[in-house]
Amino acid sequence: MRVAPLPADQWDDDVRRALSVMLPDERLNPEGAGNLLTTLARHPRLTRAFLRFNVHLLFRSTLPARLRELAILRVAHLLGSEYEWEHHVAMGREVGLSDAAIEGAARGEGADELDQAILDAVDQLQEKANISDHTWAQLSAHLDERQRMDLVFTIGCYGALAMAINTFGVEPDQER
């Protein structure tokens, strides 16, 4: 672990304000926040800015939740982020991803044309920071412009988050 979660005795109003963007009052504590947010809390201004963006992607995005979670799982798998993978397997199940779809995300194999286009978009953005014309056309057949924009930013955001998790050494919550 390179960046440890912020100890409870160092939590102050700035930390609580930063995390309040995403967490309800009852979870504004080191145990309720989990290892990732408690680690990010070491930099409250950055955390608040990041969480505002992340809240849009999780709760206000035009992209259907099932597709969002499929994309995030592919990102987590490609970048080897165990923490992100574990959290989003649970979230994916909550929004209707089957075990087969979750396993398919790890393999890069979608159940249908749209799922495959989502997984291909993740692979292409991770490899070349661009989606091919073919994949864009497939996405366009199913998603409107704003949904496609939300998809690109979801993939980018969760790629950056996976990089932070991996680099900081954020441990799964049960190990804390």
Automatic annotation (TrEMBL):
PANTHER family according to UniProt: 4-CARBOXYMUCONOLACTONE DECARBOXYLASE FAMILY PROTEIN (AFU_ORTHOLOGUE AFUA_6G11590), CARBOXYMUCONOLACTONE DECARBOXYLASE-LIKE DOMAIN-CONTAINING PROTEIN
Domain Carboxymuconolactone decarboxylase-like span(s) in chain numbering: 44-126
InterPro entries: AhpD-like (IPR029032), CMD-like (IPR003779)
GO terms assigned for molecular function: peroxiredoxin activity
Identification of the protein by name: Carboxymuconolactone decarboxylase
Species assigned in the record: Mycolicibacterium monacense
